[in-house]
Amino acid sequence: MSHRIRIVGLADGLLAPENASFEVRGDEHLLCGMERLGRRGIPVGCRGGGCGVCKVQVVAGSYHTRKMSRDCVSSTEETQGYALACRLYPDTDLDIRVVGKMGRAFTKAGPSPSQGGDSVTAGKSPAFDMSWRN
Amino acid sequence: MALTGVLRPGHVALRVLDMEASIHHYTQVMGLLETARDDKGRVFLKAWDEHDHHSVVLREADSAGMDYMGWRVDSNATLEKFAKDIEESGLASDLSWVAAGEHPQTGRRFRFTTSTGHVMELYAEKGKVGNGMPTLNPEIYPDGLKGMSPSRFDHCLLYGDDLDNTMKLFIEILGFTLTEQVIAGPDKLVISAFMTCSNKPHDVAFIRQPCKGKFHHASFLLDNWGEVLKAADLISRNRVSLDIGPTRHGITRGETIYFFDPSGNRNEVFSGGYISYPDRPVLTWTDDELGRAIFYHDRKLNEAFLSVVT
Fold it and tell me: Best exposed site among A56, A100, A122, B8 by fewest CB in 10 Å?
């Protein structure tokens, strides 16, 4: 028994593309199903209910969850359909909205590497984001 | 005795969501040995070659992360001196004494919170339960080791905001040496510091991030690169959540693999590195070369590795 998961919204209110869906087997959690099929859309973190980057909101369908960190999903949020995809097991087809974001430890547009720098990363060298200190 | 003051990272206390799954992970997959459970439900573990009673403490909670990290110091006199020095420095908050026996076979612990929001404790006494071999004419490892079987708990990497005062506390008050650092931007802000109380490339490391008390990983020592590859096999065989590796760090030169425990706390097992004497020059990396500094083979920053913490 498998269920179709449709991503209907992304973080920051962005609309998901029309074909953003994947199948999840009855014995696996949402994130596992997505990763097994090589699909993307939900950020992948610890896969253990601890870090919170794969947070989603279920907007249609039924499901059950395993224990998730309260630092990531409050009890109120839990009643509103919020859950971590790595702890979320679909009981029917689901429509979900992606809520979690990979924290931004660094910016993608950092200073260019110094002369003789690494050619592989040249031109796209990221830099640590320290804008939070300003 | 040349190595004095703070001797080593003595324990790390982690919050887990599911104790049964965690015990399986830490004992059967990683191969730590359970040494005690207490009436609060905490489970105490150690790596095989550690003589002290425990180096990992697990507590079931509703969130993941690190409760505290403990450091063994050389004597009770040193413990009292550090407690006084820390108080006078004003570099730590929430100072308190934890009574002897609160951890099994462990003396009183002096507890404080760093400016990065991490709870640390110092202690001078913990029972020696041995490494499963005699100390007179021993073998080289005991029988019956399971899983990855690292020889010891080695270090933690932690995330927090006020790195400057935490570095000051570890270096100026606790006598640690800075081995490596990462600097960023035109004002050469230190964004990461690797510090040791011994001869290792690091006993603790911090990354400057806008948070308090976050946990990146706890690391355990393996013997060689072959054991790191074997650990990778065990990670797949046991369907453990893999983060990254096997690979090599530029910083510390360690051969490494990262994975997550069943509650999302990141673990590392590694081998290699170098010997750092206190007069060894500090190695400095700039943030535009950070990819190579962190993962020497990939030479790319890994967003999940840098962003996912508990």
Answer: A122
**Predicted confidence (pLDDT) at residue B136 exceeds the cutoff of 50:** yes
Percentage with pLDDT > 70 across chain B? 100
Q: Judge if A14 and A69 occupy the same domain.
A: yes
Say whether pLDDT at A109 is over 60.
Answer: no
**Which residue range(s) make up the domain with B170?**
154-307
Q: Which of A120, A101, A121 is nearest to B287 (CA)?
A: A121
Domain boundary among B123, B141, B172: B123
Residue B231 inside a domain? The answer is yes
- The confidence score (pLDDT) of residue A10 equals 81
Closest to B91 measured CA to CA, from B181, B212, B211, B172: B172
Instruction: For residue B216, indicate whether it is catalytic.
Output: no
Residues B168 and B79 grouped into a single domain:
no
Amino acid letter at B163?
L
Active-site residue among B50, B216, B217, B255?
B217
Residue B133 CA: distances (Å) to CA of B7, B35, B220, B231: 23, 16, 20, 24
Q: Is B217 a catalytic residue?
A: yes
**Chain A to chain B, count of Cβ pairs less than 8 Å apart?**
127
Enclosing domain of residue A11? 2-98
**Single-letter amino acid code for the residue at B248:** R
Q: Does B226 touch chain A (CB under 8 A)?
A: no
Q: Out of B11, B53, B118, B202, which one is annotated catalytic?
A: B202
**Contacts of residue B214, Cβ cutoff 8 Å, sequence gap at least 6:** B65, B117, B158, B159, B160, B309, B310
pLDDT of residue A13: 67
Question: Is the domain of B168 the same as that of B270?
Answer: yes
Q: Tell me: the pLDDT tens digits for A10-62?
A: 877 666 666 689 999 988 999 999 998 888 889 999 999 999 999 999 999 99
- For position B158, which CATH number holds? 3.10.180.10
Contacts of A110 (CB under 8 A, 6+ apart): A125, A126, A127, A128, B287, B288
Number of structural domains (chain B) is 2
Give residues 247 to 306 of B whose Cβ lies within 8 Å of A.
260-266, 286-292, 299-301, 303-304, 306
- The answer to the question of residue B44 being in a domain is yes
Give the minimum alpha-carbon distance from B129 to chain A in angstroms, rounded to a whole number.
Answer: 33
Whether chain B has a CB inside 8 Å of the CB on A114: the answer is yes
Q: Are residues A26 and A84 in the same domain?
A: yes
Q: Which of B53, B155, B159, B216 is catalytic?
A: B155
- Helix, strand, or coil (residue A126): coil
Residue range B226-244, pLDDT digits in tens = 999 999 999 999 999 999 9
Q: Decide if A48 and B299 are in contact by the 8 Å CB cutoff.
A: no
> Complex ipTM, two decimals?
0.92
Identify whether B258 is a catalytic site residue: yes
B150-170: pLDDT as tens digits: 999 999 999 999 999 999 999
Q: How confident is the model at residue A111 (pLDDT cuts 50, 70, 90)?
A: very low
